[in-house]
Amino acid sequence: MSESITTKNAIAAGFRTLMEKKSFEKITISDITDECGLNRQTFYYHFKDKYDLLNWIFYNEIITPLAKEYTIDKWSEALLHILYILKNNSKFYTNALNTSYSNEFRQYLFNATSNLFSGIIDSVMNEEPISDDEKRFIAEFMSYGVSGSIINWILTGMKASPENIVLRIKKILNDSKNGPLRRYFYGI
User: Which residues contact 26 (CB under 8 A, 6 or more apart)?
Assistant: First the structure.
């Protein structure tokens, strides 16, 4: 691991610790650097501000793992991994969703799940023609449901297990693959 990534991870760890104790809005750059034992210059070498740091965490913990698994066979493993990250860092992500900046996380999650569904649609439709507009509409429709469900799960205390959430989503997708998606395209 490069020194830059190690430093970014240290800054993120300090930031996480602070987010367990106080709201995002009340955390300053000085708080973050004090928590991780670095100076402000080091922070600013790696991040523009605390929003940039928050984006980096979202991207690296949530988006990157999900973005790798666009197939019908692998997406559930990636989603389960992400749900465990969310659950294991529940105070951090609950706090992040309760900030004025929460739309960034929501948008990241929506975009990642939308891309995931585009890949799934491609694998379900195989050789069948589908326009980019139709694929985007279906992917976005499904993404609103999944990302909204995940956000609601976070904000209501993550009571259901990650396995249960993935199982429910998987069931809906499998039912859609064999029913509504086919009916949408073929009028069956």
Answer: none
Q: Residue 61: pLDDT above 50?
A: yes
Q: Show the domain range for 70.
A: 57-186
132, burial (CB in 10 Å: exposed 0-12, middle 13-18, buried 19+):
exposed
Give the torsion sign (CA, 126, 129, 134, 135): positive
Domain co-membership, 181 together with 101: yes
The token pair at 150 is 């995940």
Q: Quick check: is 52 in a domain?
A: no
What tokens appear for 137 in the block? Answer: 């509409």
Strands annotated E in 24-170: none
Cβ of 18: how many Cβ atoms within 10 Å?
A: 22
The pTM assigned to this predicted structure is 0.79
Pair 133, 97 in one domain: yes
- The tens digit of pLDDT for each residue in 70-126 reads 556 677 888 888 899 999 999 999 998 888 778 888 888 888 888 878 877 777 776
